[in-house]
Request: fold
Amino acid sequence: MAFNKGRKSSKGHLANSFRGKDFISIEQITSQEEINFLFSLADKMRGAVVEKRQLNLLDDSTVAILFYQPSTRTFTSFKAAAMWLGGQRIIAIPGMEAYSSAIKGESLPDTIRTIEETTRADIIVLRHPDDQSSEIAARYAEIPVVNAGSGKKEHPTQALLDLYTIQRELGGRDGLKIVMLGDLKNGRTIKSLAKLLAVVAPSTEITFVSSPGLAAPPELVSDLRKKGVVVQERENLEEVLSQADVLYVTRIQKEWFASQEEYLKVKGSYVISPELMQAAKKGMIVMHPFPRVDEIDPRFDKDPRAAYFRQMANGLYIRMALLAVILGRN
Ligand code: NCD
Reply:
């Protein structure tokens, strides 16, 4: 893990390679040990929340959560995570793009420095439409920055909760077959998850399924192959569905399309329905980072293979674990 910060240097507790550091890219995870460390803590966080046990690990910490793009799950789970951990001062601002001085033309570096000065925060959680936003914020902030989604590029905390979900649902089996479906060009979740799998589960076989024009970036595909992952690319879901252990569905990312017309051409290309899912294995799972638009028919929700609501619940425990380890209170 790189990106050490001066104000909170890592001392003692060798297992915690997250302490005092930014978490801005999934590529910072380089070992299974880091994952085991974080996931076992997430299990403990789950235990506390299920028993409604308020924790006090962050009772001397100030947490700033700044979102420049819409969010339901990531925003609320980060805020709830800070609160379950006993955070007393939580400055959580959705709609930064409209309600901060960004609208007057203030730069991200100035806003980040301002938030540090005005809140004395110990950590900044940032979601922003620019690919480089978290790197830029981390460069200017003296405190750790956590990337809660940057542009089309990265969503590292989502990748952690996705992997945690796969392990909880299917165990740590080798050679899982994962089909990633939808807008693989613009979506950031599949990029971070695929990179994480290449490091901690390189025997995973990934099949990307998308409409023409929405394929995964060629650099991602070649990078995964270089790391030894078997990657296939398809347009037809039916051809590969029966093999899948995980079907990871994503939304067509309307906000990145040049026109409504372009979007309408691909909208609804793949719809997961109970009928379609008769061809899939019994013990497989369907995941989706949500929000869903029309990619999964709600009639499928009661199928035990529908893991997406369990998946979003895991976001709370993973984000609690992450805040605790970065702030050095685990
Ligand atoms: C995703 C995102 O923001 O990238 N949502 C999330 O964080 N769970 C997926 C999306 O917007 O489609």
Notes: The radius of gyration is 19 Å. The mean pLDDT is 95.
